[in-house]
Amino acid sequence: MSLTAEVIRILGERATHQINFNLGRCRIDPTAFSRVQSMLRSESIGVQTDPDLPDRARYDRNGPTLFLWSDADENQIRSDADSKALIVHECVHVITHAQASRAIDGIEDETVAFLAQTLYRLAIQGYTHQGSGERGGDYSRTIHHFRDRPTGRIFDAAQQIVFDHEMLDQTACTPLFDRDVERLREAIRAHPAYATSAS
Ligand SMILES: [Zn+2]
User: Fold this and answer.
1) Is 52's pLDDT higher than 60?
2) For residue 91, which of 140, 48, 62, 58 has the smallest C-alpha distance?
3) Ligand 1 center from residue 110 Cα (angstroms)
4) I want to staple 65 with a disulfide (CB 3.0 to 4.6 A). Which of 32, 46, 94, 137 is the partner?
5) How many domains does the chain have?
6) Ligand 1 center to residue 106 CA distance, Å?
7) What integer pLDDT is reported at residue 103 of this predicted model?
8) Ligand 1 centroid vs 109 CA: distance in angstroms?
9) CB within 8 A of 146, min separation 6: which ones?
10) At 133, is the pLDDT very low, low, confident or very high (cuts 50, 70, 90)?
């Protein structure tokens, strides 16, 4: 199996199809992920490793190409929920780029990408319904533990949106508004990696 085939497979997973929300001009839902699958199948987007990326991924709109960390391989990805969640994050950038009629604001782009990444990760973790026990389990506890670090703050804020809106308790699209994502936006703006795109 190639990296491209693995990314296509992830986008067809049940956890990916549980991501369904809209914010402003962005609608992140199963139909949007299916479109990314088609773009990958027709090779209008490439998937490659990047020797200069030790532990991250990025979407280059000028390829257009999804670049994965230098030693990414399909077997490692398949067995690692965090790697798959990161790929879902990058595929959201493909969606926002395709949906936005003009360039989307960098912070807005990251807001929807981090929210989708968190939804996927919680869905994989086995998010439990409200009233039937703890939500998010081990993953949620880890996020909470690191909530004072820049990256932890982002995921803590994203997770709170998922819980507040019971986003994984329903299949319908969750409409989100600016006030709902304010804390997540602030956490992204405060992160050193994204501070420069806060315009
Ligand atoms: Zn991103």
Assistant:
1) yes
2) 58
3) 5
4) 46
5) 1
6) 9
7) 73
8) 7
9) 152, 155, 156
10) low
CA distance 54 to 141: 26
> Distance, CA 131 to ligand 1 centroid (Å)?
33
Of 79, 93, 44, the closest CA to residue 194 belongs to 93
pLDDT in tens, 138-160: 888 888 889 999 999 999 999 99
Q: How far, in Å, is the centroid of ligand 1 from the Cα of 126?
A: 24
Residue 44's domain comprises 3-197
**Which residue do the tokens 């090779």 mark?**
43
| Cα 190 to ligand 1 centroid, rounded to whole Å | 15
Average pLDDT of span 91-117: 91
- Judge if pTM exceeds 0.85: yes
CA of 137 to the centre of ligand 1 (A): 25
User: What is the amino acid identity at position 165?
Assistant: H
Interval between CA 108 and ligand 1 midpoint (Å): 10
Phi, psi dihedrals of residue 46, rounded to the nearest 5°: -95, 165
Distance 89 CA to ligand 1 centre (A): 6
pLDDT in tens, 26-43: 999 999 999 999 999 999
**Confidence tier at 199 by pLDDT (50, 70, 90):** very low
